[in-house]
């Protein structure tokens, strides 16, 4: 069984570290990718880390994950709160989905407290900044097991 985890990032996450650092932290997305790669290595997980500003590209990547990824970690950014298309694509998967948000979306504007992604996710990690991605990898590692033959 593959131990490849697809880590998907949605709109504006390419701007991390440049503004709103009090909300999202100082790490750039490239810093987060590096920390995911190093953490995943220790867990024996292969990472495919991507970002797009396009809703349709996210849907296509989720569809393409069928049969190729063991799990998905997704921070869909603002699309989390609006996209039924992303929800439908996630629901078509038969691998675990862990949702990540850098900020605690429940402590912010009311429109951020609703997430369509959550409806398809095994669980949600929010409010831990960049550490949330590493926590999600830990959760995925538990969910998909060691991959060792018994
Ligand atoms: O907390 C999160 O991870 C979010 O998914 C981040 C999204 C936001 O729309 C969600 O409600 C919560 C925003 C992505 C980053 O936006 C930036 C905009 C300007 C400068 C830096 C980051």
Verbal overview:
This protein has about 150 residues and is α/β, with parallel strands linked by helices. It has helices at about 20-25, 30-45, 55-65, 85-90, 130-145, and strands at about 5-10, 45-50, 70-75, 95-100, 125. The protein has a single domain (about 5-145), classed as Dehydroquinase, class II (Rossmann fold). It has a five-stranded parallel β-sheet, sandwiched between helices. The longest helix is centred in the N-terminal third of the chain and has 15 residues, at about 30-45. The model has no long low-confidence stretch (mean pLDDT about 95). The structure holds ligand CA2. Ligand CA2 binds near residues 20 and 103.
Structurally, how many domains make up the residues? 1
> What's the helical proportion of residues?
25-40%
The unique ligands bound to this protein are: ligand CA2
User: What would the average pLDDT be, to the nearest integer?
Assistant: 96
CATH superfamily: Dehydroquinase, class II
């Amino acid at each position: 069984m593959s131990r490849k985890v697809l880590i998907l990032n949605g709109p504006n996450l390419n701007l991390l570290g440049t503004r709103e650092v009090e909300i999202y932290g100082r790490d750039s997305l490239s810093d987060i990718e590096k920390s995911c790669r190093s953490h995943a290595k220790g867990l024996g997980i292969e990472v495919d880390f991507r970002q797009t500003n396009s809703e349709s590209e996210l849907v296509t990547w989720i569809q393409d994950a069928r049969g190729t990824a063991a799990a998905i970690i997704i921070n869909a950014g603002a699309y989390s709160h609006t996209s039924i298309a992303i929800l439908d694509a996630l629901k078509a998967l038969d691998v675990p989905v862990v949702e990540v948000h850098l900020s605690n979306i429940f402590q912010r504007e009311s429109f951020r407290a609703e997430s369509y992604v959550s409806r398809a996710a095994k669980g949600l990690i929010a409010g831990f900044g960049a550490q949330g991605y590493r926590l999600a990898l830990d959760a995925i590692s538990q969910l998909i097991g060691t991959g060792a033959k018994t």
